[in-house]
């Protein structure tokens, strides 16, 4: 199941599968090594975008990184088999040690706060395979960020479905003063603790928080309904929205309903990408990403629906209107961040730096 690098290989890296581990039925982790021997940079909590080229075109899918760069672990991703998932079925069913995969690199904003911020305690809320990026974050926080402490709530239907349960328990034992873990199972005879409902979450925070609310930071990853419920509970409890970070952890790549931008005229877009500067013209119904690709410019992207953040850019001049966004916070947008896959230039020409 080796994937060859396309002729234009400036934006692709080849990875060799060095180890495959079944974590639970239907979920495997893949340890990867760059074929050129040069480390592939990434941050804890990010994802890796893999590329498959076929006669039908290019398919891209992103998988969360479970390894920690601070521990110099082999680059490792977690993959859950999706019944109708082309890429996940290929990996789970057919991939073997020694096979080669193609990546455009790591991306994502689900990362630890920069040093020197006000945050002192991090709460992680994970359900099912949503633990994959959080596992990377936890290991990095505990080993490399001594100023931070962590609380983990990990929900599953029953214990056998909990990924990384042993290493998570080992981390709690190794760092008893800085990590507290709560495993919750739907089949628990204690119904008050079977699911992380609103009241239980708020009681947990009340008893486990060591610092004021504005010094707490929350990370949520799991099914859509779980993340919506947890976000609602946190906001109701008084946690500010900028203190809540979510990783959209689903494979639903259906495009959101079409929304017409307030300006459908053609505008010039200047793109700074990979040390080069390119100029294109973008006009509705094509977004900036589509316009750039039609002009033959290789751009980072994955979901093309405003859900993953692979196409992240910083707006240097002008205004970019987004038709959909599940990634960027209001603070991100105020700081000039935009997604090219759902972004349209409005009100005039635009200049952007592709990140």
TrEMBL record:
Domain of life: Bacteria
Protein name: Flavodoxin reductase
This protein's UniProt keywords: 2Fe-2S, FAD, Flavoprotein, Iron, Iron-sulfur, Metal-binding, Oxidoreductase
Domain 2Fe-2S ferredoxin-type: 267-355
Residue ranges annotated for the FAD-binding FR-type domain, each copy included: 10-113
UniProt-listed InterPro entries: 2Fe-2S_ferredoxin-like_sf, 2Fe-2S_ferredoxin-type, 2Fe2S_fd_BS, Beta-grasp_dom_sf, Cbr1-like_FAD-bd_dom, FAD-bd_FR_type, Flavoprot_Pyr_Nucl_cyt_Rdtase, FNR_nucleotide-bd
Cofactor: FAD
Keyword Metal-binding: yes
Tagged with keyword Iron-sulfur: yes
CDD domains associated with the record: fer2 (cd00207)
Gene (name only): paaE
């Amino acid at each position: 199941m080796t994937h060859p690098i396309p002729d234009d290989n400036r934006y692709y890296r080849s990875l060799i599968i060095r180890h495959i581990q079944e974590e639970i039925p239907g979920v495997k982790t893949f340890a990867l090594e760059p074929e050129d021997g040069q480390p592939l940079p990434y941050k804890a909590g990010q994802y890796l975008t893999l590329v498959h080229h076929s006669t039908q075109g290019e398919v891209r899918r992103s998988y969360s990184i479970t390894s920690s760069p601070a521990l110099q672990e082999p680059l490792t991703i977690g993959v859950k088999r999706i019944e109708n998932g082309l890429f996940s079925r290929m990996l789970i069913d057919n991939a073997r040690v020694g096979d080669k995969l193609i990546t455009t690199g790591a991306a994502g904003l689900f990362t630890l706060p920069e040093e020197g911020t006000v945050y002192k305690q991090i709460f992680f809320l994970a359900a099912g395979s949503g633990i994959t990026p959080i596992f990377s974050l936890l290991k990095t926080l505990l080993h490399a960020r001594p100023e931070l402490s962590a609380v983990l709530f990990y929900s599953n239907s029953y214990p056998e479905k909990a990924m990384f349960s042993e290493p998570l328990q080992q981390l709690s034992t190794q760092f008893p003063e800085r990590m507290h873990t709560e495993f919750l199972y739907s089949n628990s005879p204690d119904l008050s603790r079977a699911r992380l409902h609103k009241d239980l979450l708020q009681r947990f925070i009340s008893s486990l928080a060591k610092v004021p609310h504005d010094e707490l930071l929350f990370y949520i990853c799991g099914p859509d309904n779980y993340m919506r419920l947890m976000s609602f509970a946190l906001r109701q409890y008084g946690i500010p929205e900028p203190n809540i970070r979510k990783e959209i952890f689903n494979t639903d790549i259906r495009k959101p309903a079409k929304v017409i931008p307030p300006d459908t005229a053609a505008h010039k877009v200047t793109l700074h990408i990979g040390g080069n500067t390119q100029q294109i013209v973008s006009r509705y119904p094509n977004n900036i990403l589509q316009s750039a690709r039609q002009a033959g410019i290789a751009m980072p992207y994955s979901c093309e629906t405003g859900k993953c953040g692979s196409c992240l850019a910083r707006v240097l001049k002008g205004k970019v209107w987004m038709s959909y966004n599940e990634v960027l916070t209001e603070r991100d947008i105020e700081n000039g961040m935009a997604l090219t896959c759902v972004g349209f230039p409005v009100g005039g020409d635009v200049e952007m730096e592709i990140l």
